[in-house]
């Protein structure tokens, strides 16, 4: 199975700050990586797919990059509504696997 | 607009059975693989099972193999998971999830609202 790790596990930042989360796969997954946002008590929502493609309707302050084993997710200017847990997920191989999540809140 | 409306769930005793349903609308259901993903209380996301658009191919996690069966009725635009021999560790919110392309190995693009399954005596 492909193991996904994320760092940090949590972070606290001010409104307007640039926030960066990293995700690492235990083996090469090309660009078959997505990022999902989960707000408290809600279902996850797709933000980024194929490592860097922004899902339709998602604000442009969200972006992703990387390929192979190392990936980055960035919020260019943190907004209060971005308070959530963010998960990376690989879909290169079954079983599909998720990272443990990064909890983002406002300082 | 894509909608995934889940039903079923609730409290079940250990070793019991339960079936979850997911009624889909807003897209050509039979063209897309569908998935179940679960989330134990306070924990992360765990993929459970996937079924191809035709229903001819299914895949599931080792943790549920032999106990859970994914299926779909394309005439009713509905996805199911039959869960047997339930254990306490199956307690979770279960999400119905659409695949974003016609290939199985694609991103998950829409999530249902989730339904809680509690396994307890």
Estimated structural class of chain A: mainly beta
Sheet with most strands of chain B: 7 strands, mixed
- What sort of overall outline of chain B do the alpha carbons produce when their principal axes are compared? globular
Radius of gyration of chain B: 13 Å
The helix count of chain B comes to 0
Oligomer: heterodimer
Q: Greatest chain-chain interface?
A: A-B, 24 and 21 residues
Q: For the record, give the distance between the C-alpha atoms at the N and C termini of chain B, rounded to a whole number.
A: 40 Å
Indicate the percent of residues in helices of chain A.
Answer: under 10%
User: Which whole number gives the mean pLDDT of chain B?
Assistant: 97
Secondary structure tally: strands of chain B: 11
- Strand fraction band of chain B? over 45%
Short description:
Chain A has strands at residues 4-7, 10-13, 19-25, 33-38, 45-49, 53-54, 62-67, 70-75, 84-90, 97-98, 102-106. By secondary structure, chain A is an all-beta fold.
What does this structure look like?
The complex is a heterodimer of chains A (107) and B (121). Chain A is mainly β and 107 residues long. In chain A, 0% of the residues lie in helices and 50% in strands. In chain A, strands 2, 4, 5, 6, 9, 10 and 11 form a 7-stranded mixed sheet that branches. In chain A, strands 1-3-8-7 form a 4-stranded antiparallel sheet, with no helix packed on it. Chain A is globular, with a radius of gyration of 13 Å. Chain B contains no helices and 11 strands. In chain B, strands 2, 4, 5, 6, 9, 10 and 11 form a 7-stranded mixed sheet that branches. In chain B, a hairpin with a 4-residue loop joins β7 and β8. Chain B starts with a strand and ends with a strand. The mean pLDDT of chain B is 97. The interface between A and B is medium-sized, with 24 and 21 residues.
């Amino acid at each position: 199975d492909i193991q996904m790790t994320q760092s940090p596990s949590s972070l606290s930042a001010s409104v307007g700050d640039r926030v960066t989360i990293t995700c690492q796969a235990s083996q090469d997954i090309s660009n078959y990586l997505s990022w999902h946002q989960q707000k408290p008590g809600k279902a996850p929502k797709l933000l980024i797919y194929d490592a860097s493609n922004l899902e339709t309707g998602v604000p442009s302050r969200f972006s992703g990059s990387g390929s192979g084993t190392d990936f980055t997710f960035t919020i260019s200017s943190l907004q209060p509504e971005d308070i959530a847990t963010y998960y990376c997920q690989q879909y290169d191989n079954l079983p599909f696997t998720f990272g443990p999540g990064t909890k983002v809140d406002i300082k | 607009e894509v909608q995934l409306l889940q039903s079923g769930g609730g409290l079940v005793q250990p070793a019991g059975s339960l079936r979850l349903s997911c009624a889909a609308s807003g897209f050509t259901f039979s063209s897309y693989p569908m998935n179940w993903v679960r989330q134990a209380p306070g924990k992360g996301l765990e993929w459970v099972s996937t079924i191809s658009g035709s229903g001819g191919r299914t895949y599931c996690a080792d943790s549920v193999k032999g106990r859970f069966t994914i299926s779909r009725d394309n005439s009713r635009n509905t996805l199911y998971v039959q869960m047997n021999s339930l254990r306490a560790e199956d307690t979770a919110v279960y999400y119905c999830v659409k695949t974003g392309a016609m290939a199985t190995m694609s991103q998950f693009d829409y999530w249902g609202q989730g339904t809680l399954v509690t396994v307890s005596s």
